Structure formats: structure tokens, C-alpha cells
Amino acid sequence: MSYNEKYVQPLAGATIPCIPVRGAVAFPGITVNLELTRDICKNAFDMANEDNGLVFLVCQSDLSADKPSEDDLSHIGTVAKIKQSVKGADGTVRVLFEGLYRAVSGPFVFARRMIRAQLIAREVAAEGAVSNNDEALRRALCDAAEETTQFNAKLSSQIVLVMNAMRSLPQLCDFIAANILAKATDKQLVLSEFDPVKRAKLLLSLLDTERDILQTEMRIRNKVKEAMDKNQRDYYLREQIKAIEEELDEEDEEIAEYLDMLDKSKIEGENREKIKKEIKKLSKSPYTSAESSVIRNYLDTVFDIPWGKYSKDKTNIEEARKILDRDHSGMENVKKRILEFLAIKQLNPNAKSPILCFVGPPGVGKTSIASSVAEATGRKFVRASLGGIRDEADIRGHRKTYIGAMPGRIINAIISAGSMNPLILLDEIDKMANDMHGDPASAMLEVLDGEQNHSFRDHFVEMPVDLSQCMFICTANTLDTVPRPLLDRMDVIELDTYTRNEKFNIAKKHLIPKQRKRHGLKASQFALTDEALYEMIDSYTKEAGVRNLERLIGTTMRRAAIDLASGSKKVTVKKDMLESYLPGHKFPPEKIDEQDEVGCVNGLAYTSVGGDLLKVEAAVTDGTGKLELTGSLGDVMKESAHAAITYIRTVADKLEIQGDFYKTKDIHVHVPEGATPKDGPSAGVTMMTAVASALSGMPVRRDTAMTGEITLRGRVLPIGGLKEKTMAAYTAGVKRVLIPYDNMSDLRDIDPLVRSSLEFIPCKTADDVFGNAFALKR
């Protein structure tokens, strides 16, 4: 094959922008990615981009020159076309060029802040078939290039595949020079040779030189690596030996420390032997093994338990009474039970601590009284919330071999207290659940059993722990969800709802000073009149405890703080100011009727927020003997209505009621506030009296309220919640209350003001109820 040189049109004699390239050479047929940072380069790029996209890429010999001179630029370069460009935020321009032709430049023109070159672009065209000489040169180049790539790890294996696929000798030379040669001067030599055959021979010579250099570099690199590997290996081994020696020393110190802790502890009997075995097992386990980590965690937890440490009980009854009275008003049953325990402790210091369960509605002070009991008895106080737990492991702990294993809440409580006889409050014991993981209530059986808890076994600790000296106080809102075996192990003390006067006293002694301190107010700056406080209790709260009352007191103080900040010296909140101080609506007061009514009776109900006046209405119409019961009544209450009507049928003559009323009359019994569910047997006498009044036409005294269960034989059975019911009667303006005879013993628990203000009439039978309920016939 022969090669003939010719000029390329239209570039012959053309002047195009020139971009000097530092440290790189562009070749025809090869794409090159350049980052243009100098103004002379960016200006040349802008001019070419606006014209035909052609630039002249030349190699710059002086890499440090930002503005090269004629001597710094090679006159043989490559004409390239702009393919893509991206402008960066910092002003640089990244451009992808595609080399087209070799070209020779005349003198460069330095003007308009750029370089331009007048070119003579030349191309060597191949004619005829490929000669043996060309094929031999191509193969020699491929072999030489492939050998060179073996000594340079930076070169991709894809280069060899592309080279072997090329059949054009000129293209192969340019490709090898662009991708394999390292020096820019060598690349420029190849670019400057227009004859393909001479170019191939030159490239062979340069590849031999490049290969020799790479081989020498590899030998040097291998020697250095071998020396470094040996040094690193020696250093690594020395460090390993040092670490092993340190670990052995540390492990010996750790074992000695555990043994010393065991000697100083008061752990005795089988527990001591168990811990010795664990320490011995740790000494034989590898330091970094998973088993040693488990044993270490186990030993740390066991030694955290305060074995043999007991706080001294206070047995001064008078001092304990002062502490309990200081923190809480009322709660006489709780205070009495605690003082009994302290009295027994004086007589028998080894007496077991009681297991109490405080049951009552929210907000009556079940949790806070436990803290006062701990102070009164001189014990550490720990609270464990049981609400919502559903896993037995929460009580007994996890097996120590599990990942993340830990002791249960009982052992954690003892560790937190730092004493083996703390007061542990088990809060919300009625809200424990159960699922596939077990029943936590069943796990509590051993904890709260005074005959078993002297050897309580936690799954994590795996040793008997004495809980017999711990005082357990449980709290619950209801006993319905507490299992019977668990309930049998506790001394249940019911906390009733607070009466009106009790709430008043609690607010005066505790809530107002507490909120005044929280809001930074002094007694000389804020005052709340007694009338305003009673109004808040009666009309703005409807609760068993005092939580909402405390919030309302805090609200009035924040409103008063605004007035004080505005210049007032003192704010006294009176009853008529509450509407402007407190948000929300008032609860309408329950009041008795203004006159005696037929078929309308004042009943008394016990609710979760205290007592309530429950009016029962009865109406009789001509009909076929239907009985209609409305007002969201429960099954028990409906059965009481049926029992009452059946009894009335048995005494119809005595009440002067038509004997066949159950055939000719329809009876409708309604309890107002129909959206509120109601149930229970204590409204039996009330519904009986209302129906009897409606059938006989006799009015019922408006100043009388009643409560009690009725039987088919007319007996009045006892009921619960008398304290709360009588308070509701007193608040509504009732003067007389009919109660079951068997409830007379409960009058001692009633508020003294209520007891002195109301007339209590005991009733054994329905005749006693009728004789005291009906007014004179009109």
C-alpha cells in the first residue's frame, strides 16, 4: 500500500482559534476531554463555538506559563471539533473535542485576548491493497503495545481489544500513542510524523523505551513492597504479641477484681458458689469470645444487686403521721394501715412488710401517697410502671444467653434503690395484658406472695433473691381486670372519690401553694377566695380526684400573672371573675325540682367521677300492658325495673292501684341524660317509687332522694358508694335520704358536714320507702 499526501479543504490557509494544551497532545480520530480555565482558552472556545466549532489544539511545552509565547507552542497540532461543553459555576468550561486532522501552523497571531493560527492541514491517503510490510508493522505495534500494558496496571484491558480490531495503520499509531505513551514529548513526536510507515517505526522505538522504563519501575516497586511487607509483618507480629500480653494481664486483673468483689459482698450459700463457678468459667474463656461477654455482663449485674444492704425503718408513729398528714388530706384508711405496720415493727422488727393495693379512680393520689409512705417509713422509693406490659420477661427477665438480655423490672427496681428493702410501687397493675409471650400477671404471683418471695428467681440472675423485706404497693383503677389469685395476695384499700370539702381542703393546703411556687407568685400577689374555689369545684370540674382542679388553679394564676405584669400589685380572684379567667363551659348544677311531682323521683348514682343525682321518671298511659325502658339502661337496671313492677302488682290493693293495670296500662320508665350509659341494681327502689307514684297519682317529696336494691318480696338490700351518693344529694339541695337499713354502719364514713346536714332514714322494706317518700295526696 502507498501513501500520498494532500491538502485538506477548506482548511488550507484558514485562520482558526488556537487552544494551547498543557501536558497533553490531541490526535486525529481520538476524543479528548479538556477543562478550560484560562481566558485565552475560553475566548478561543467561545469564538469557535460561535463559528464552525473548529479549533487548533497544540501542545504547550512550558507548563507554568499562563500566557504562552511563540516559543512555548508547537507548530504541529490537531484540528478538532467541539462535540459537547459544560460551563461550571466557577467559570471553568469542560469541553469534549474530537480530533479531525493533523495540521501545520504558520506564525501564531496573539490578539483579542486569544491565539489564532493560520493552518495548512494535511492528510495522507492510502492507495492500493494492504502490503505485507504494513501488516507486519501493525502486528508488531499490537504486540509491543500489549507487552507494555502488562507492566502498567492503570491501563485497561479494553485497550488491547480495540487495538487488535483496528486495521488502519495510521489510526492504530495514533490510538497507541494517545493511550499508552506517558510523556507528552513522545506523543508530540508521533503527532509530528505525517508518514504512517515512519510513524509506526518511530512508535515501535518509543514503545520499547516505554516498556523498559515500566519494567524498571516495576522491579523497583516490587523491591520496595517486599521490604515494606517484611517490615509491616514484623511490626504486626510485635504488636500482636504486645496485645496478647496486655490482654493476659488485663484478664488476670479482671478475674482478681471479681473475686475481690465476691469476698467483700454479703452473698452467701448457693449464690456464692454459683458466682464462683461463673468467675471460673470466665477465666477459662477467650477474652474476645461471645460467651465471655455474656458472663461478664451477668457478673456485673449480679454485683449491682445490693446483697445484704437494708435501710433502717423509721418506727416513730407520730413523726410518720405528721409526714402523711403534711402531704395528703383525707385517706384515713391508708394512713391507718401504714401506722399499724409501723406499730407492729416496733413490737416485732422481723415482721414482714405488707403488700397493699390502692384501688380508686384517677387523680385521687394513689401514686403520690406511696412516695409519702416511703418517706414516713424511711425506705427508698422506686416506681415500676406495669401499664401495658404483656411479656412475662418484663417481670422475670430474659435468659442471660439471649442477645440484649437483662433482668426483669423487680430486680432492676432493687438495683435502682440500692437497698434490699425498698418500697416498690407497682403502678397500674390492673392494666397488664398477655399474649403469646406469657402472662405477666402470673409472674407477679410469686413476687406478691409473702410465703414465696423470700426466694424469688429472676430468669437472668438465676439465683434466689429475697423480696420478703420489700414493701410492695400496687395501684389500680378497678379490680375487674386483676386476676383473682393475684388479688388474694394483696391487702386491698379502696380510695373513694374526694368530697367537695376534701377537694376544698386539698386545694387550700396543697394545690394553691404548689401552683403558686411553680408560677413564681407570692401569697401577697395572688389570692383565691373560698367562694371562687367552691365554684371551681362545683361548676368547672366533674372528677373523682383533683387533677383538673389543679389545672384550673394554674390557669387562673397565669391569667393573674398577666395582670401583675401590666402593673397590678395584687390579684384576688373572686367568684364573679371566673368566667373571664377560665376557658370552657360550666357544668350545669344538679338541683331538685321546685315542687313535688307525680312519677318523678330523685335517685342517687355512683359514677367514676363521684356521686350524681339521678332523676327517674315514670309515665302511665292507656294501653295493653307494655313496659318501655329508655335512657341507655343496662341489663341489671332493666331487671330491677321488672322486679319493681312485679312487686307493685303484689301490693296494688294496699297502694290503691287498679289490680289489672298490667293489662290495661302501658308504663314508660325513663332516666334522663340518655346518652350516658347507666347500670346497677341500686336504682331499684327509685324506679319502684316512680312507677307506684305514676299509677297511684300520689306525688313524691321533692326534698327526698333514695337508693337501694329491691327484691320481689319488697326487701331493700344494701348498696355501695354511699359516701359519694350522699355528697351529691347534699350538693343538689336534698334534705332527706332513704337508705337501706344495712347501710347504716357506713354513715361513719360520710363527710361530717353531709352527715349533719341530711336526715338519713333507714328502710328495711318497700313499705318503709313508700311511707317516707310520698307527699300528701292532692
Strand elements, count: 25
Give the strand order, joined by hyphens, for the main sheet. 19-20-18-17-21-24-25
Give the CA-CA distance, first to last residue.
142 Å
Structural class: alpha/beta
The unreliable regions are none
What's the average pLDDT? 83
Number of helices: 25
Q: What is the approximate shape?
A: elongated
Helix content: 40-55%
Task: Draw up the topology in text.
Blueprint: E1 2-7, E2 15-22, E3 31-36, H1 39-50, E4 54-60, E5 76-87, E6 93-111, E7 114-127, H2 132-150, H3 158-165, H4 169-179, H5 184-192, H6 196-264, H7 269-284, H8 290-304, H9 317-327, H10 332-347, E8 355-359, H11 366-377, E9 381-385, H12 393-396, H13 409-417, E10 423-427, H14 440-447, E11 456-457, E12 464-465, E13 471-476, H15 484-487, E14 491-494, H16 500-518, E15 526-528, H17 530-540, H18 547-565, E16 571-573, H19 578-581, E17 600-607, E18 610-622, E19 627-630, H20 635-650, H21 661-664, E20 665-670, H22 684-696, E21 704-706, E22 709-710, E23 716-717, H23 722-732, E24 736-740, H24 752-757, E25 759-763, H25 766-773
Parallel strand pairs: 2-4, 8-13, 8-14, 9-10, 10-13, 15-16, 17-21, 19-20, 21-24, 24-25
Antiparallel strand pairs: 1-7, 2-7, 3-6, 4-5, 5-6, 6-7, 11-12, 17-18, 18-20, 22-23
Helix pairs in contact: 2-4, 2-6, 4-5, 4-6, 5-6, 6-7, 7-8, 9-10, 9-11, 16-17, 16-18, 20-22
What does this protein look like?
By secondary structure, the chain is of the alpha/beta class. It is 43% helix and 20% strand. The strands form 6 sheets. The chain has a 7-stranded mixed β-sheet. It is elongated. The N and C termini lie far apart (142 Å).
